[in-house]
Amino acid sequence: MTTLISRPSAKAVKVMKCALFVAFYEEFVMPSKIHVIFYSTYGHTYALAEAIAQGCREISEVDAEMFQVAETLSSPILEKMGALELRNRFSHVPIADPKKLSEADGIILGSPTRYGGATAQMRAFIDATGSQWVKGELIGKVGAAFTSTASQHGGQETTLLSLATFFLHQGMTFAGVPYSARELLSMEEITGGSPYGASTIAGAKGERVPTSNELAVARAQGRHVANLARKIKAD
Ligand SMILES: Cc1cc2nc3c(=O)[nH]c(=O)nc-3n(C[C@H](O)[C@H](O)[C@H](O)COP(=O)(O)O)c2cc1C
């Protein structure tokens, strides 16, 4: 008896098996990926980024990668600002590339506060994501933000909320820090950290370092975003 459907060749079967394996691997085996992307002049925002990445990695099957956005200031200017040497502490962190954003299930952006908003360096990175927006590449991913200010009421929440518009325009879900992180409620000390995102207070001369309370909020934010990214990926 003749049949209209011919048997696939051995090569075609091999290709199909390969495609099935890749689809299975991506769906069930490959860890969720979180990109923690920061700008930092003096290192405070970098310290928070480290804690957030650590929190992400506390969740099983989650991998966190850190990136920094490109510096736009010249070395002589950074020298005058007293930042050149401090920036060596995180010079090993690779420069963020908008093209890589599509690889992540969650994207966490951190920027120091400048007049109640994000830095020009972080804005330049955001402005370079037009191609991702046009293609809808980031739709359905999780986004979150963190910041640093010099003073206690220097605009942390405005910076965090101003970054939220980026995620919403990209079709992403904006995540903050849930109150299950009890450190958000601490009245024992002056502290950063809010339901809008992790934060630290650097001090007028940058003399303060992130406290254990602030780092705990940062780790909680990392865990929260990682959990959400895993759930969204599993759907
Ligand atoms: C141009 C400029 C504007 C700033 N605006 C603010 C501000 O609005 N509120 C505030 O508390 N700190 C402000 N700062 C201080 C920075 O937020 C502070 O240096 C930063 O949080 C330290 O983080 P980093 O160590 O990651 O660079 C400003 C600093 C600069 C240079």
Overview of this protein structure:
With 235 residues, this protein is of the alpha/beta class. The protein has one domain: Flavodoxin domain (Rossmann fold). 40% of the residues lie in helices and 15% in strands. Strands 1, 2, 3, 4, 5 and 6 form a 6-stranded parallel beta sheet that branches. Strand 4, helix 7 and strand 5 (173-174) form a beta-alpha-beta unit. The longest helix is centred in the last third of the chain and has 23 residues, at 212-234. The radius of gyration is 21 Å and the shape is globular. The protein starts with 9 loop residues before the first helix and ends with a helix. The model has no long low-confidence stretch (mean pLDDT 94). Bound molecules: flavin mononucleotide (FMN). Residues 40-45, 112-116, 148-151, 154-155, 202, 206 line the site of flavin mononucleotide.
Q: If you compute it from the alpha carbons, what radius of gyration comes out, rounded to the nearest whole angstrom?
A: 21 Å
The number of distinct β-strands equals 6
Termini gap: 45 Å
The rough form would be described as: globular
State the helicity in percent bands.
40-55%
The H/E string reads HEHEHHEHHEHEEH
At CATH level 3, the topology is Rossmann fold
- Beta content: 5-15%
